[in-house]
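The record is given unchanged here:
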Amino acid sequence: MESRLRVQGHPIQPMLVTFPFGLFVSAAVFDLADVAGGPAFLGEVGYWTAVAALVAAGLATVAGLIDLWDVRIGRANRTAITFHLVNAVMAAMFLLTCLIRAHAPQRGATGGQLATELVALAVGAVGVGLGARLMQQFDRGHAAEPTGLETIPGATVEIARPRPF
């Protein structure tokens, strides 16, 4: 699998996909604290964290779809499509809870909304596994390529033995 969007030889999409998942987890933690009886502002923080996660998920999705354009038909293609569908389901579940909470005065989560978020995180965990599988398939195809300092033109790496005193 080759990526069109790269920074110094590294694909951008795997870097971007970590932000929404981490923000979704954070939103669920804030909502859990709110539902468990914490201060009311925790529900508001959880709501806005989920909104930020949805924005980050949109950016990661755009990068992923650009990369998906070049994936050959086969196992990697099926894994990539499943990965994107699973992540879309997770984001849709969070979007649903955000839309419901958008009209509430305090924007705090209810027990049902928290349960929906926890199910969405379980779905997202499947997406993390699929993403790891995609990265393994990507790494297998690039095992012979140089990495690190040897990719910089003119850079050399030497291992010198220590001189005796």
